[in-house]
Design a protein that fits this description.
single chain, mainly alpha, Growth Hormone, Chain: A, globular
Length: 418
């Protein structure tokens, strides 16, 4: 009976990745960049639209970066992680569905709604990540974390495939055009996200907090005090500090590639249908590969797995610069799918073993803050270099430096010492 309960709890937690990955794949990685370039901002230059898209991703990152440590500290003090998860999930769902109603040429409105949806998505992940400590023992966190990412790849990929089929054959689904199908897909993502978020809300039990009976005002005050304490603790805990600094750098490269790959492909002349197919390849390669990386973490250690992934990403950036044919984009899609989920899941599980267990949301607040703050740099860097040079190929090489510096700092992280 206890084993069945643990399995139910782990699967319920993992299904949240299945739920919100629909937004990450269909909206962030694919349809929004394409629709933004070809529909909402079709009357402005390609390099300008890339710059504005980068600014939108960076703005969302700044907002999440500012809020994350505060929300995490408050959630730990109040024992309210699931309540915050529900709030930001609903925010992301409503904003995603609202993209359906944005008319052609209204790129400013699209940017605002997209930014708010991304804030809901990213902030919700803070509380989802921190609940990992309530569903898995330390020895199994590499595997459970990887299972969640793998579920995300599978669920997000399945819905993305359906949405792609719908946009390629709109008449079969009773829709007016491909543009109409893309807009309908935003509604479908919102419904999917809402439906599959229910298991974590109903079946994952959150650990109790000693401060749970405090008033909301007391919780907020305590949260701000706790932030100051956390900053002092992070400076004292050399291992945690080094990991966060390294993570901040290398995850910048990962998230920038996720969010800007389609835009980059369109900027160098590849058609949108080919790029969508490449994203589908990444999703379905990512499902088994992420689980495999969880096993690599258990056998070789999370650090070794992360180093392997960083090396692959450096190769991807170099290849991306010289890429000439769309078939090469397909190959890169396979290569990225092999490591993308692995580097994310192993980073999350490694960090969960470095931090104080009773202050998980608070420390995961800084973890997410640095991750989203990194996304502030990457998209702006790509957009800015493309804008001033007039050649988007130069922008992809700048990401290599982030991977190298991140790996250098990660080398000095001593898990046993933590």
């Amino acid at each position: 009976m206890q084993m069945e309960y643990k399995l139910k709890r782990i699967l319920s937690w993992s299904f949240y990745d299945w739920a919100n990955s629909a937004f990450a794949t269909t909206v962030i990685a694919a349809f929004f960049p394409i629709f933004f370039k070809e529909y909402w901002s079709s009357d402005i230059a390609v390099t300008e639209s890339t710059f504005y898209l980068g600014m939108a991703n960076s703005l969302a990152g700044i907002i999440v970066a500012v809020m994350s440590p505060i929300l995490g500290a408050i959630a730990d003090r109040g024992g309210t992680r699931k309540k915050f998860l529900l709030f930001f999930t609903m925010m992301g769902i409503v904003m995603t569905g609202s993209l359906y109603f944005v008319s052609q040429g209204a790129w400013i409105v699209a940017i605002i709604i997209y930014t708010m949806a991304t804030v809901g998505f990213s902030s919700g992940n803070l509380f989802y990540d921190s609940l990992l400590l309530d569903v898995a023992i330390p020895q199994k966190r590499d595997f459970v974390s990887s299972l969640g990412l793998a579920m995300g790849y599978l669920g997000g990929g399945l819905l993305f495939a359906f949405n792609v089929i719908m946009t390629l054959n709109p008449e079969f689904f009773g829709l007016q055009s491909s543009e109409h199908a893309v807009r309908v897909s935003f509604i479908i993502v919102a419904v999917w996200w809402a439906l599959f978020s229910l298991p974590i809300l109903f079946f994952v039990k959150e650990s109790k907090s000693e401060k749970e009976k405090d008033s909301f005002f007391q919780i907020i005050i305590s949260g701000f005090i706790q932030i100051r304490t956390t900053l002092k603790d992070i400076r004292r805990h050399r291992t945690v500090f080094l990991f966060l600094a390294g993570y901040w750098l290398y995850i910048d490269g990962v998230d920038t590639i996720i969010r800007m790959a389609v835009d980059y492909g369109m900027s160098i002349g590849f058609d949108s249908n080919s790029l969508i197919l490449a994203l589908l390849i990444t999703q379905f390669v990512g499902f088994p590969s992420t689980i495999l990386f969880g096993k690599i973490g258990e056998v070789l250690g999370a650090k070794i797995g992360i180093f392997l992934a960083i090396g692959v990403y450096i190769g991807v950036c170099i290849w991306g610069y010289f890429m000439k044919d769309v078939s090469e984009f397909y190959v890169l899609a396979v290569v990225i799918g092999l490591v993308q989920g692995g580097i994310q899941s192993l980073s999350r599980s490694l960090f969960s073993r470095l931090i104080p267990q009773d202050r998980a949301a608070e420390f995961f607040g800084f973890y997410n803050m640095l991750g989203k703050m990194a996304v502030v740099i990457g998209p702006i860097l790509m957009g800015w270099i493309g804008l001033i040079s007039g050649n988007p190929r130069y922008s992809i090489l700048s990401i290599i430096l982030l991977f190298i510096l991140g790996a250098f700092l990660l080398y000095f992280v001593d898990e046993k010492r933590a």
